[in-house]
Amino acid sequence: DGNASAPFTVGDSGSASFSAGDKTPGGAKILIIKVVDSSGNPVKGATITSASGHKYPTFFASTTTLTASPNPSTGGEPVTFTATITSFARSGTPTGKVTFKNSTTGTTLGHGTLNAGVASLTTSSLPTGTDTITATYGGDGWSAASHTTVSQVVN
Fold first, then answer.
1. How far apart are CA 101 and CA 18, in angstroms?
2. C-alpha neighbours within 13 Å on the C-beta side of residue 139
3. Which of the residues 1, 94, 98, 100 could staple to 85 if both were Cys, CB 3.0 to 4.6 A apart?
4. How far apart are CA 62 and CA 142, in angstroms?
């Protein structure tokens, strides 16, 4: 229990450091590895290979949350879907786009560009019934892709 940290050399191109300990709110043990070049700048998209040969990409995990307002709605009423992307242990917020799709009909509703980790889309063309709306974040140079769904009821 507690935290451990140590730097080590990565070939001739720089160094990496790791820390391990109780870092999550639930107390789960995690391992964080930061890869930097010889000037101390983070290296995007580096891959770490363990002694057993398993490869670990150095992207930060991301989480997508999705809300719908109003929910339920009536046919023809505008509904705003808001996706919030967070990335565990990353300094700064994820960048890029979120794709909004009605997974019930297979229709792509549109795309939203992240601003401070948030993207929104408003539509009034949802069919009556319960629609499963999916928000998919494609990732960026630092954060991995993620997605989630919300059920939208249209009366």
1. 38
2. 13
3. 94
4. 10
